[in-house]
Input
Amino acid sequence: MTNNLINEPWIPVVRRSGRRETIAPWQLTAGYEDDPIIALDAPRADFNGALVQFLIGLVQTALPPERGRDWRRRLKKPPSPEELRCAFEPFAYAFELDGEGARFMQDLTLSEGEPTTVDRLLMEMPGEQTLKKNIDHFLKRGTVQRCCPSCAAMALLTLQTNAPSGGRGHRTSLRGGGPLTTLILGRTLWETVWLNILEARDLAGLGNAGCTCDADTFPWLAPTRTSAKGEVTTALDTHPLQMYWGMPRRIRLQAAETGTIDTCDICGCESDRMVITYLTKDGGVNYKGGWRHPLTPYARMKSDEELLPRHGQPGGVTYRNWLGLVQSHPERGVPARVVTTFREDRYADLTDLDARIWAFGYDMDNMKARCWYEGTMPLLHVEGGLRERFEAEGARLIRAAELVVSSTRSCIRQAWYDDPKNAPSGDLSFIDARFWQETEAAFYEQQRRLLAGLRTDTDLSGIKTDWLTTLQEEALVLFDEYSQAAQIGIADPRRIALAHRDLRRFTSPGNKLIAQALDLPVEAAAGGKRKKRGASEDPAV
Output
């Protein structure tokens, strides 16, 4: 069994040449000049998301830059594998996966608990009540019966990082169930890790730097700070680094030497030592109050509430999430600390880097994982003097898109039903998902045009009207596809025609709401023609 997660190879990666291999963390920069590692290559996407956070947390713990020039130096000239080995070695004792003593992300003293099959480490597997009621129709029990030590480590890391509600006393992760993570994505895996490392002084303010015991960073090195009687753990109770090493679940893996070679049900590798079960118990660490994880965006759900971590939502990660993920917005929230730090303090010095944001996370419905979403967004460098106006204009483009997709959805319902207001509600999120996906490339192109226009002090109205034309064209394409217009024998042609007319009207530059959203004069945008009195502007308003 893989015993030490610092010294032994267990992380699957792919190099620029396409060659795949498994490395130890200290080998992250091996072959950097000739054939660098460019990405993680785990058998599951959520494992990749957890592994990149593992590497960021490890480097942040062992090799934090003291000043900005230290950070820039390491970006241009990465540490050698030997340097990384020396930096990680003092912490290797905390990363044992097996053995009698402290184990990585496992309860130190747990010897009695509920024996559980290893597949329950996986986020999407059916929960206890689903199994008791025998309603695991789509994700069946028993599909993962054994896994190799590497996959067990990845599954454990993924669960502790994303832990959803797990029933009474089974705690959620430090950022709640299925947190959304946003990272700056580099050209190599080392760049991706280092671009998301904070200076030591910036991290110190995110917790209690006076908590210097080893267990204040790695909670599995001491008896679990249980929550059986309602105890909570706040940001003032631990060192800031514990944000990267949170352990909400009380778990102890049970590995078995079968004496025969078995196949891992996750990655397909062969081993004579497999993890088949684990012990678990309720009352793990209950993380509450004041946490601001550097890799997660936050939003205020209500005006009087504290900022809460953002989570994955149906529809995935597209430019509709730009506000709050890339730029701050009073209603949508604030980006992750690493995103803000990069945009405001670092990007100006990196003229050769075409940075992107990598966003990923689970869409959770309480205990149930509905979907794993991830996506990337280009990140433009905007000079400080232009940033406020650029962000305001970008928000206008998104607001116009929201109005158009809302009108599209409403007009399709109008085409379907004689009385749309009293018709069955239904789930029309697939229309929204198509709309955002199909207009995404155009949004980023208009952003580039906006930035160029601001730099040359050019009138932006032509860019905005072009954007509205794109939105209207996509709205009409979706209407034609979903309104049953092609099934004239079973649809009402008159109702469809009226809905089509209304959609054109609602998404035109002559619509007052659209013009206001884009900051365009209604008369000028509409070619000087006034809208007829009494005409509706937006069926969704």
Summary: The chain is about 35% helix and 15% strand. Residues 384-416 form the longest helix (33 residues).
